[in-house]
Amino acid sequence: MTFDDRLRAALDRALADVRAAAQAEVDEVRQSAEQSTAALRASAARLSDCVHAIDEAPSLGAVLTVLAGCARLDAGRAGVILVKDARLTAYPSRADVPPDQGRLAISAARKGTPVVEGEGAAFPIALGGHVVAVLSTAAPSSPEGGAVLDLLARHAGRVLEAMTVCQITGLAPLSPRTPDASAGSAP
């Protein structure tokens, strides 16, 4: 075997090794992208389900209960703390929340913005621009998780506002549309 043949064989082996390594990296990236896409789809579906569940809650208390349940899906632990003046009470038990335990909730209520610190987070729930409750959760595992929790808390606030207006004015709330109802006859 000549020198040129040995050199060509060595280069062919090195090139084959580089191609194999590159293909392994491409396969790994593809698999990671597929897993991320599946996780994103699941998260979007869960968010949509939670928004619909909050919309369909039949009472003010049910909105808060559904909100806390949906938040648990993303944060692992979640509860609602009612805010009245400087007093914090847990929902639904109405037990007082000591200031040292409700520090994040107090901060979120005063600022009117989410507060994430250490192992906890608090997301304000406002009616007419006034914070009336706070969604208290474990710290989100990602910025996206925090955005989802903030969106759920804001949406719950809007639903609570609408329900309150309906109660005050005596208007009946719109009944939730079912998929079959929209396909039926026109009103």
Provide an overview of this structure.
- The protein is α+β, with helices and mostly antiparallel strands.
- It has a single domain (39-169), classed as GAF domain (Beta-Lactamase).
- It has five helices and five strands.
- It has helices at 3-56, 60-75, 103-111, 143-169, 179-183; strands at residues 78-84, 87-91, 115-117, 120-127, 130-138.
- Strands 2-1-5-4-3 form a five-stranded antiparallel beta sheet, sandwiched between helices.
- β4 and β5 (130-138) form a beta hairpin.
- α1 packs parallel to α4 and α2 (60-75) packs antiparallel against α4 (143-169).
- The longest helix is centred in the first third of the chain and has 54 residues, at 3-56.
- Mean pLDDT is 88; it is low at 181-187.
How far is the first residue's CA from the last residue's CA?
Answer: 89 Å
Order of SSEs? HHEEHEEEHH
Question: How would you write the strand order of the largest sheet?
Answer: 2-1-5-4-3
| CATH-assigned homologous superfamily | GAF domain
- Catalogue the unreliable spans: 181-187
Overall, the morphology is elongated
Cα gyration radius (Å): 26 Å
Mean pLDDT: 88
